[in-house]
Amino acid sequence: QWGALQDRLSSTIGENNYKTWIKPLEFHGIEDGEVAVFHVPTNFIGTYVSQNYGDLLLSHVASLNDQVRRLQFRVANAPRPDAGTPRAAAPTPAAQPQATNGAATDLLPSAPLDARFTFESFVVGKPNELAHAAAKRVAEGGQVTFNPLFLYGGVGLGKTHLMHAISWELRTRHPELNVLYLSAEQFMYRFVQALRERRMMDFKELFRSVDVLMVDDVQFIAGKDSTQEEFFHTFNALVDQNKQIVISADRAPDEIKDLENRIRSRLQSGLVVDLHPTDYELRLGILQSKVDSYRSQYPALEVDAGILEFLAHRISTNVRVLEGALTRLFAFASLVGQPITMELTQDCLADVLRASDRKISIEEIQRKVAEHYNIRLSDLIGPKRVRNFARPRQVAMYLCKQLTARSLPEIGRRFGGRDHTTVMHGVKRIEELRSQDSQIADDVELLRRALEA
Ligand code: ADP
Ligand code: MG
């Protein structure tokens, strides 16, 4: 059965990824009736697989055996980890709600916080500066100036990150404060549990004794009437005591359907800020800060600016995908022991890049570049090697490499049948010149913007 499943996985995630990550897994058996245990050669592989393919793998395994609830990756011969650890991997935000399994009978106060989600690691740019400033203000823990703070924005734009950051900062600055962070789903779960165990008094007491309450993804309670009701009472009790509340949602309060009007207007009564979709600069900043944080983990790996720029251009969906791509790139490069080149990047991230293909064509780039430098298209592509044509040609090649998914030989072909080494040389040359020659740097930037507009 595991064999058949392996085949299926290989076609979903691609031959290379399959060979690197899934093939080394060895199915060990089912434990406790619901944990599928895999042996892995190293902890690193276990962690990586769990973070990147955990959900996929689980859904496949569960389709074979519907008793299976979770996966565990264990280095062969290593002792069985504590029953309290649901996955061998470091906790990912998605895995965390399950981390509370062990204490199911307590009305657990706060959901675990991700150690990586701090203000230090949050990169501020135009799209999120307001949200960041508001979160910072709340994290000072001083007088309550707006209540609630309502943060909203699309998936992966940093809402959860900011809320955890507030928690962390409050814990250091004001250890005396009782700060409670949880998702709306966990709120409901605890509410239902309290009902079932006839512990509503405990529940109310617990929630009314916090100093700062943060509820993530509040859109979840839409349409869930009794949970909404309880949420409303909790909310009011805290506001009355002048306790700070922070709420997040994937959309603005008036766009959440099936939400009681009185709750909606409560949510709007404080400060409502949105996180805008990332722009190129912010994405690049996030990538750079990620790379810095990898220095210690992968001291031998260098990644040059061109590759980060390429990723920031090409992956514009959400930050989680962007980070995932970089993580995979580093893990892959270190595993195969190769430097991070453009080839390796495109190879290793083919699926991600395909999914977010912006479809800028080589012709388009050539046309724009020729126009920009005021030369004829035929001269840009043609054989003449005079500087007036050669430099724009290199700029065009560079942009083709950055903005399209075409390979070097393919680009060479489209530039009058040039060799891929010529293209590579051109790309390198512009990369160098960009840091030395501000005119070239400006040209490239201007053209890129024009092409992406
Ligand atoms: P949301 O809750 O809005 O769906 P998250 O807060 O979970 O998004 O963010 C998704 C991922 O992107 C997290 O790993 C987070 O650290 C990262 N991230 C998002 N925005 C930023 C940012 N401005 N700086 C650094 N990391 C960010
Ligand atoms: Mg979130």
UniProtKB/TrEMBL annotation:
Which residues are involved in binding ATP? G156, G158, K159, T160
Q: Which residues form a coiled coil?
A: none
Residues covered by region (Domain IV, binds dsDNA): 334-453
| Annotated GO MF terms | ATP binding; DNA replication origin binding; lipid binding
For this protein, the record's InterPro entries field holds: AAA+_ATPase (IPR003593), Chromosome_initiator_DnaA (IPR001957), Chromosome_initiator_DnaA-like (IPR020591), Chromosome_initiator_DnaA_CS (IPR018312), DnaA_C (IPR013159), DnaA_dom (IPR013317), DnaA_N_dom (IPR024633), DnaA_N_sf (IPR038454)
Question: Where are the annotated segments for Domain I, interacts with DnaA modulators?
Answer: 1-90
* Domain (Chromosomal replication initiator DnaA C-terminal) ranges: 361-430
Task: Tell me what this protein is called.
Answer: Chromosomal replication initiator protein DnaA
Can you name the source organism?
Salipiger mucosus DSM 16094
User: Which gene name does the record give?
Assistant: dnaA
